[in-house]
Design a protein that fits this description.
Oligomer: single chain
Number of helices: 10
CATH architecture: 3-Layer(aba) Sandwich
Shape: globular
Order of helices and strands: HHEEEHEHHEHEHHEHEH
Strand order of the largest sheet: 1-2-4-3-5-6-7-8
CATH class: Alpha Beta
Distance between the termini: 39 Å
Number of strands: 8
Number of domains: 1
């Protein structure tokens, strides 16, 4: 059964005639996504300190927002966070409340990354930025007041895709994040799963929307076979960071998250999988209207604390 609060939200959006994302230009879709956040997101919790910074890699300048749980400068664990939005929409502001909540509840520094998006910046730009962001945080750990041995990486939806792929790339570079926090991640660009078929219409994220998002990001259909775009297709998932994979029951991406958690487990990687069976894609940022969002955030914060404690 669909959560009644989720059903009420979808009914309201339908009554208001919110246009599907795939009928808009990327600029229009970004503006609409930003505008809706005040309706669905809870009030922003207070944290100790917030800094807007930037770093450069390969001649590209990338913005980051750094959240500190207190004003103290002691060496704290950290999470590099990659926002969702189909590699096309979303930014530091659309995920500000979630990052603040994770910072406050987990007790670590959160570094939110304003990575490059399509269609202006095609694959693998966002992937490259994700890898570079984690490396930059590790290299600047002393300046940022971060313990370099306890830096996790995570994200929701497209951000979960980037986090999973970045862990593969970082592994091959000899680096290992403390945890990969994957919130309803996209793990394969050409899905043929039961959840994709069953939930591809009527639950906010649709097959048409996914095609629009991936079309904005990928250079060609062949990119879908690249593990940097489809981490499920990697030759090996061994020696990756421990994972927390969280999905939603009425999400077309549900089975991708489960398949990825299973792939990690088969490869000997410690993997936790939790599905909020009655929820829809995107629910974790909607705590003003979906009560279960708060439980999901608390679970993610707990997973971070546990991972940071054992590193």
């Amino acid at each position: 059964m669909l959560d009644p609060q989720a059903q009420a939200l979808m009914t309201l959006l339908s009554e208001k005639g919110i246009p599907p994302v795939y009928t808009q230009t990327p600029v229009e879709a970004r503006a609409a996504y930003r505008a809706r956040r005040s309706f669905t997101q809870p009030d922003a919790p207070e944290v100790g300190r917030v800094q807007d910074l930037h770093f450069s890699h390969s001649g590209v300048d990338i913005g980051v927002r750094v959240y500190h749980p207190t004003d103290a400068t002691q060496s704290l664990p950290a999470l590099v966070y990659l926002h969702g939005g189909g590699w096309t929409i979303g930014d530091l502001d659309t995920h500000d409340v979630l990052c603040r909540s994770l910072c406050q509840q987990a007790g670590g520094v959160v570094v939110s990354v304003d990575y490059r998006m399509g269609p202006e910046h095609k694959f693998p730009a966002a992937y490259d930025d994700a890898v570079a962001a984690w490396q930059w945080v590790a290299s600047q750990s002393k300046v940022l007041g971060i313990d370099p041995g306890r830096i996790a990486i995570g994200g929701d939806s497209a951000g979960g895709n980037l986090a999973a792929a970045a862990c593969l790339g970082l592994r091959d570079l000899g680096c290992k994040p403390a945890l990969q926090l994957l919130i309803y991640p996209s793990t394969v660009m050409a899905p043929d799963t039961a959840s994709y078929k069953a939930n591809g219409q009527g639950y906010l994220l649709t097959r048409e929307s996914m095609a629009w998002y991936s079309g904005n990001y990928l250079r060609s259909p062949q990119d879908a076979q690249d593990w940097r775009a489809s981490p499920q297709l990697a030759t090996s998932h061994a020696n990756l960071p421990a994972a927390m994979v969280l999905t939603a029951g009425f999400d077309p991406l549900r089975d991708e998250g489960l398949l990825y958690a299973d792939a990690l487990s088969r490869a000997g990687v410690a993997s936790q999988y939790i599905c909020f069976e009655r929820q829809i894609h995107g629910f974790i940022t909607m705590g003003r209207v979906l009560q279960e969002a708060h439980a999901a955030v608390a679970l993610c914060a707990h997973a971070l604390r546990m991972a940071w404690a054992v590193v």
